[in-house]
Amino acid sequence: MGLGSSYVTGNKIMSNSSLLERRKAAVAGGVANATPLFIEKAKNAEVWDADGKRYLDFAQGIAVNNTGHAHPKVQAAAKAQIDNFSHTAFQVSMYEPYIELAEKINAIVPIRDAQSVFFSTGAEAVENAVKIARTATGRPGVITFRGAFHGRSALTSTMTGKIAPYRAGAGLGAAAVYHAPFPIPHHGITVADAVAGLHTIFKTDIEPCDVAAIVIEPVQGEGGFYQAPKEFMQELRAICDAHGILMVCDEVQSGFARTGRMFATDYADIEPDLMTIAKAMGSGYPISGVVGKRSILEKVNPGGLGGTYGGNPVACAASLATLEVIEEEKLVERSAQLGAYMLDRLNKIKDRDDVVPIGDVRGVGMMVAFELVKERGGHTPDPDIVPKVVAAALKRGLIILSCGYFANTVRLLAPLTVPTDQLDEALDILEAALQEAAAA
Ligand SMILES: Cc1ncc(COP(=O)(O)O)c(C=O)c1O
Fold this sequence. Notes:
Elements lengths: L6 E3 L2 E3 L1 H11 L12 E5 L2 E4 L4 E4 L2 H4 L8 H13 L11 H13 L5 E6 L2 H16 L3 E5 L8 H6 L17 E4 L10 H14 L6 E6 L13 H14 L2 E5 L23 E4 L10 E6 H4 L15 H16 L2 H21 L6 E7 L2 E6 L13 H10 L2 E2 L1 E3 L5 E4 L7 H20 L1
Parallel strand pairs: 5-15, 7-8, 7-9, 9-10, 10-11
Antiparallel strand pairs: 1-2, 3-4, 4-5, 6-12, 11-12, 13-14, 14-17, 16-17
The site of pyridoxal-5'-phosphate has 15 residues, from helix 5.
Cofactor: pyridoxal 5'-phosphate
Keywords: Aminotransferase, Pyridoxal phosphate, Transferase
Pfam family, one: Aminotran_3
């Protein structure tokens, strides 16, 4: 294979293909790669790979860089913290950025009298939310939803409502985790069906008095960008209240302005007991957290929460800068506006008869997705066409990801800071990719 625009540094040849060979030899295959690219440089919506090719990045590290790659304000805050100190372990010696971040997060979540605790990854936040809920209620049970994604750790991959690829072959899952149906009316599950499914679990699997928490993504992320309808969220709140169950909103993917609100839970007009946050919180610096009612968090004994790196000072500094950027650049409003613009354009593409059949087009702010289906006007999933569209887009310089319980969804995760001409460029590429896949 040719080396393309490869270059030599020291005695190493740097190109996508040469790096891929080294990756295959040195790195576990259990980590799947959505693209064969090795990134050398990244700026806001753009990245450049080891072959020198430019791409528009509409994956943004899986919904992490809502402020784009290398936002100058976030980078400056992180650098300043690095130059000062980068780690003490909050449990050993504390530092102000952790406190300031907790104060700011407590003030913007839809939870009254909130407290926060920080970790490093989304899965860790979800694990801890369950631990807190079990401790606070003295109950073992956890109910999550089919199609949900909560992580890859032993507990969170059990909570994830899809076996392959996340848990396939990994043996028995964690105990006392049950999956309820998630309402997706165009796939035949109404809100009433989903509520009935939950009551069935109470009858056949676990009594409500043994359930510690119901954990829900207000917009399913990996599951396909399906928003839980407001009436469903309110019904869950009522069921939780009736049985002393804690309601946990997993905002790991939907949080921090991605959906046109600071948190997707804001659409539901409910107050969760706990929320998990991560990803866009740190704009790429690993940080996550559990935010919840003080009366619940204080049930955990000192020493029960934490972790060596939880709330690392560099990540706290980056998170504080991220919150400032969201406010200064009005990214909540921009997410709502650009999301509506994208939906309009995608619906126009859907109407063309020279593209692959597109089913449901949906979005909550800039959490935008569409389904690829077998026949125009229908909803029968066509998972086989999805990799072809994704590959055709990549060839033309656009990075996009697939997702979905039915594996037929393409999701678009543009940075909320994307320049509008680059947004148009990306949608043009997508349109051409959908045409190319139809012609093949
Ligand atoms: C809703 C949700 N929860 C939890 C996680 C797990 O986060 P992490 O990959 O940081 O462990 C993810 C990751 O995609 C997610 O989307």
